[in-house]
């Protein structure tokens, strides 16, 4: 532990200038956030002309009727236009808020709110919670009309919307209540760790965040998701039998098998698993069950179990720990930096002893361009894992010596195509757009890779004979 703190101390000395030099952080944040926004707009402009292509890629031609293809192109076009305009709108709002010193104003407003209840500035944690709540409110409300438009105009037009205004409002209120119920105690504990551990907070905060993530893994599907969706045990039948048999052969510790009234039309959350290492639960979306035959759903599950077999969730957790560690290791330099707060219009008395939460949020906005790069790397890693899980499904026949699994790759391909067509997912994708945004390879890329995996799995199976 001492070694860690010596190293962290050395890093802080490198960054000591942050605490003394009057750097124009505000201009830096404005310029860098505009750069990220304009780059994202540029990606949309690269992608946009592809929605005018008259026919799907040759590999997909036989699976798309011309009507379905035209619908998918029109849907993509509308979504891209919406993304471009809402991205620029959000950026203009954020830019104005930074320009007019929204952080300083919100901190002051939180202080006055607390004072109205008889609490002074000594109650930093309470003031921090009020501060974050005020900031969240003023950044969410202007985006509400966009969200209404997206659900009731854009999705409606393309036949995807199943949300009623009542459900929309109920979801919104539930979301807010939940954010407060979980967010407030989380923030209080987070800030308490800082206060308690002082400048040696890095390992303690890491431990706290890891514990929080693990608790959420348990709480999310059992407590939170049921607030929005209904999970019911998958009824007995061919599908259930197939999945239970597959899980048993792979020694996957399956405890519960659920069907969810999803209709959350995301092409990759068609089925997933969760739970602790010794007790796992599988959830399948009702839409997938409706669209695909039992043997195709089984192939999707074989892919999901590939993620489990290769421990992809654990690996992603480790990478995210490394990411969090880097952020926390850099943070102390910004934690005691009056010039940082001064740059964002805070009065001298607040800036002299920066409140932890204020310093942390300002630090986050400084990190934003770096986070965009980290996002690209995380997407690349996630795409690799997708290929690995697809290969796992193709190789099951050899791994298990199961002749009846020889066409799993084909079944998986069919299920992916069906999902894609039903979701009107985009088929022509610009490579740079995809590298930046996509956590999954495109359908064309996956089908091509599946062909390769099937071929090499076939060769391996022959060798074993
Ligand atoms: Zn996957």
Automatic annotation (TrEMBL):
Zn(2+) binds at residues 303, 307, 386. It comes from Obba rivulosa. Proteolytically removes the C-terminal three residues of farnesylated proteins. It is a multi-pass membrane protein. Residues 47-230 form the CAAX prenyl protease 1 N-terminal domain. The active site is at residues 304, 390. CDD domains: M48A_Zmpste24p_like. The chain crosses the membrane at residues 129-154, 175-195, 201-223. One of its GO terms (molecular function) is metal ion binding. It is found in: Endoplasmic reticulum membrane. Keywords: Endoplasmic reticulum, Hydrolase, Membrane, Metal-binding, Metalloprotease, Protease, Transmembrane, Transmembrane helix, Zinc. The lineage of its organism: Eukaryota, Fungi, Dikarya, Basidiomycota, Agaricomycotina. Belongs to the peptidase M48A family. It comes from the Eukaryota. The keyword Zinc applies. GO terms for cellular component: endoplasmic reticulum membrane. This is CAAX prenyl protease. The keyword ATP-binding does not apply. Residues 234-452 form the Peptidase M48 domain. Binds 1 zinc ion per subunit.
């Amino acid at each position: 532990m001492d070694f860690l703190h010596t190293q962290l101390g050395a890093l802080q000395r490198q960054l000591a200038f942050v605490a003394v030099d009057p750097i124009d952080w505000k201009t830096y944040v404005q310029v860098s956030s505009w750069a990220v926004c304009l780059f994202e707009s540029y990606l949309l402009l690269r992608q946009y002309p592809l929605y005018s292509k008259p026919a799907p890629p040759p590999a997909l031609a036989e699976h798309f009727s011309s009507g379905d293809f035209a619908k998918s192109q029109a849907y993509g076009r509308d979504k891209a236009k919406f993304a471009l305009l809402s991205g620029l709108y959000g950026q203009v709002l954020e830019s104005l808020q930074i320009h007019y010193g929204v952080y300083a104003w919100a901190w002051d407003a939180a202080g006055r709110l607390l004072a109205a209840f008889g609490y002074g500035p000594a109650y930093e944690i309470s003031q921090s919670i009020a501060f974050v709540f005020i900031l969240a409110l003023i950044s969410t409300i202007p985006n509400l009309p966009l969200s209404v438009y997206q659900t009731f105009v854009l999705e409606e037009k393309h036949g995807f919307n199943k949300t009623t205004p009542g459900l929309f409002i109920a979801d919104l209120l539930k979301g807010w209540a939940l954010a407060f119920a979980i967010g407030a105690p989380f923030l209080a504990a987070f800030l308490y760790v800082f206060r308690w551990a002082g400048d040696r907070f890095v390992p303690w905060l890491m431990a706290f965040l890891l514990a929080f993530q693990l608790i959420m893994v348990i709480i999310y599907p059992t407590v939170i998701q049921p607030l929005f969706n209904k999970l019911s045990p998958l009824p007995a039948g061919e599908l259930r039998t197939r999945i239970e048999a597959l899980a048993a052969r792979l020694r996957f510790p399956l405890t519960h098998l659920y069907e969810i009234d999803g209709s959350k039309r995301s092409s990759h959350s068609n089925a997933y698993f969760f739970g602790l290492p010794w007790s796992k639960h599988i959830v399948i979306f009702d839409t997938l069950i409706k669209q695909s035959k039992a043997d195709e759903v089984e192939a999707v599950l074989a892919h999901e179990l590939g993620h489990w077999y290769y421990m992809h969730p654990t690996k992603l957790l480790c990478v995210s720990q490394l990411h969090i560690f880097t952020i926390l290791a850099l943070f102390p330099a910004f934690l005691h930096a009056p010039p940082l707060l001064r740059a964002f219009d805070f009065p001298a008395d607040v800036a002299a002893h920066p409140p932890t939460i204020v310093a942390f949020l300002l630090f986050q906005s400084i990190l934003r361009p770096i986070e965009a790069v980290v996002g690209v790397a995380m997407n690349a890693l996630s795409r690799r894992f997708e290929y690995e899980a697809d290969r796992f499904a193709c190789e099951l026949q050899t791994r298990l010596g199961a002749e009846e699994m020889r066409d799993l790759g084909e079944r998986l391909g069919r299920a992916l195509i069906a999902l894609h067509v039903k979701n009107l997912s985009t088929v022509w994708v610009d490579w740079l757009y995809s590298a930046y945004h996509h956590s999954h390879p495109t359908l064309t890329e996956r089908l091509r890779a599946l062909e390769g995996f099937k071929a090499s799995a076939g060769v391996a199976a022959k060798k074993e004979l």
